[in-house]
Amino acid sequence: MWLFKKSQNPDPPPPSTEYDRPWRSMDWNKDRQNLLTTINNFQPGNKEVNTLRILLHGPQGAGKSSLFNSVNSALQGRITTRALAHSVATGCSFTLECKTYKVKKDRTGSFFPFTFTDIAGLHECGSVKTDDINKLLNGHINDGYFFNPLSAITEDNPRYKGNPTLKDRIHCLVAVLPANTVSMMDDGIIREMREVREKARDLGIPQVIIMTKVDEACPLVKEDLTKIYTSKKIKQKMEECSCRLGVPVSCIYPVKNYHEERTTNTTTDILILDALQSIVNFANDHVEDKVDNDVCLLKVDNE
Ligand SMILES: Nc1nc2c(ncn2[C@@H]2O[C@H](COP(=O)(O)OP(=O)(O)O)[C@@H](O)[C@H]2O)c(=O)[nH]1
Ligand SMILES: [Mg+2]
């Protein structure tokens, strides 16, 4: 009798993993070309700074090198792997090079007016000293410097720049966190990331969070990347990143990097290019603000 009754009232369906409407709008058919055109035409607004410097920062394995490769791939229209992803570092005693990458614009040999500095990141057993990252933010460290996890750079080092100007400084800090493991991330790493973030904030450097590996965090998104802004799981992971790092959700860009693909595709490109456009705009606003501030200061001095 009861069994019969139960079959008449089946269990309620599991709650949906998707929202009815996306929380960010994106035109998956049109936006790629618009984004490419805008980025191709972009020029920094401050003539003293012809290249905007973007620093990638985050734990080892978060997808920093893959993010640079994905930006490069989306802009070139083919898969490229210039930054060595998943470096085979073993143990705790390796040194970490500060490497800056330019992105080639076209076959004439010109470059986009922005660069990415990729440093192997923070991890449990020895990382780039926070003091070194602060120096890097301020433009004191030249490319090719090998970070020593045990000691920070000293002023007598040949790669130390004594009097950096605005063009040498970092113009946007990009923190990279993986969606699939953000909950399990060591508190020490998060603390270090917050410290760097706070330092950047004190210097007025804008910041963006890139949340990678969305495909690993949500099966729905793995199946169909266009569901990224309707997936409840991705929203929840973004809220987690926001809470752990202390940044608003609006500064977080979820992306899937190219990591095993052989060709680029529109949806992956759009997410990468949309994040890139925001990063470049924030960096540009920062260098323009610096000019405005300097002009204000000059005016005050003259009064
Ligand atoms: N599934 C997936 N794997 C990724 C993604 N981004 C990076 N990876 C993989 O994660 C690993 C670490 O990436 P890597 O770029 O070397 O991290 P880094 O240490 O921060 O530079 C590599 O095996 C990548 O292929 C992503 O968006 N999705
Ligand atoms: Mg790397």
Residues in β-strands, percent: 5-15%
Number of structural domains = 1
N-to-C order of helices and strands: HHEHEEHEEHEHHHEH
CATH topology: Rossmann fold
Helicity range of the residues? 25-40%
Number of helices: 9
Category by helix and strand content? alpha/beta
Q: If you compute it from the alpha carbons, what radius of gyration comes out, rounded to the nearest whole angstrom?
A: 22 Å
Bound molecules: guanosine-5'-diphosphate, magnesium ion
Low-confidence region ranges:
87-95
CATH architecture label name: 3-Layer(aba) Sandwich
- CATH class equals Alpha Beta
Please specify the SSE layout and strand pairing.
Blueprint: H1 2-8, H2 31-41, E1 52-57, H3 64-76, E2 96-104, E3 111-119, H4 130-137, E4 146-147, E5 172-178, H5 187-202, E6 207-212, H6 214-217, H7 219-223, H8 232-245, E7 252-254, H9 266-302
Parallel strand pairs: 1-3, 1-5, 5-6, 6-7
Antiparallel strand pairs: 2-3, 2-4
Helix pairs in contact: 2-9, 3-9, 4-5
This protein binds guanosine-5'-diphosphate and magnesium ion.
